[in-house]
């Protein structure tokens, strides 16, 4: 499969993920590997990674793209990305080890709100760029350096512009979002001089800042707001330059939104309306436009004469979301007087972010037939198998009229924050199967009873 457009989501050549999966293929995968199972389309992932690299490199000849490991750490997927020239963005010790193994010869960047002493040693010794988030990290590094335990570290500083990146028809959402952007735990606020103070602290300890890092949020679809929020970051880069910092890189993080998954952006006001039986307003869904983002970012960088800097990003969801779908089986239908439930064998233990009011495309299969969903099809709540009320994959979705136990449901955009965020609360974690002709090749096995209890220490 090829994607003709440099931007897989906008314009000609954009393709629906898994549009080409035949009911018989889904049926065979389910029969052979069981359900729930994540189905991975490697060709789509490669095409996406390659398209992004082409777009990014055309705008920024000096650049790095770091794959966000926390979004999905499947070795097969990470390896494919690295073969295509992408580096790794890690946020923990085990991800760092994973990257040092899988991502040799490509750049690795160490992010995250908390880094342990031994992880800092390991990263610096391996030549990994460490993006400072806590100033205590600087203190530890200074102490290690004084003791001669590490070479000169390559440091970046994570900053926070504190500007909104989402819009909503609901002002109560927008207000809460603005506050969260200003008060989050990540990075040093550019406003009020805290970022400058952090930079001064780093200089005082005898280190220099080589990279300026900002990662603003996730599933950002408002391209213009995203660029606008990066302007103060670029201004700060210019200040650091003026103060003679040997800055080499601007890293704009990830957060690029995808169209296959929509998040309800509602606050207390919408909740009240919904409780009163009124339909809260829906916000216009925007689609993140990578081509425009890159063009605008480039001109903002040029306007500040920062063109010689390496311009980097850390995509997670943008590359991974739509290359995996979740194949699940209907366990039963429960028709209550006021609600129809379709209970599936997949739940929030393997798709935890569905709890945040996300909507995804669904397809339904019975043996080798697709079950069509008409626009006037009945609404149902898709419940999962976990033993708590909140385990709902989708509160309200149109389902085929005759949906019944045994039918398959293919849930799109299951590649981001699923495998790596799965837990075994009530149920075992799911297998991942790569599309491979008719059946599918297992690349991550299903968790077993033995796996779950493997941590038990017997006396
Ligand atoms: C999670 C994360 C990313 C990836 O975010 P997406 O929204 O999946 O693109 C990138 N950088 C950092 C520092 C992160 O924590």
Describe the global form.
Answer: globular
Instruction: Name the CATH architecture of the largest domain.
Output: Alpha-Beta Barrel
Bound molecules: pyridoxal-5'-phosphate
Number of helices: 13
Largest sheet, in brief, is: 10 strands, mixed
Strand portion, in percent?
15-25%
CATH homologous superfamily grouping of the largest domain: Alanine racemase
CATH topology of the largest domain: TIM Barrel
Nearest-integer average pLDDT: 95
The beta-strand count equals: 21
Modified residues (N6-(pyridoxal phosphate)lysine): 70
GO biological process, one term: lysine biosynthetic process via diaminopimelate
Keywords: Pyridoxal phosphate
Pfam families: Orn_Arg_deC_N
Produce a short descriptive summary.
Helices cover 31% and strands 21% of the residues. The protein is an alpha/beta fold and 459 residues long.
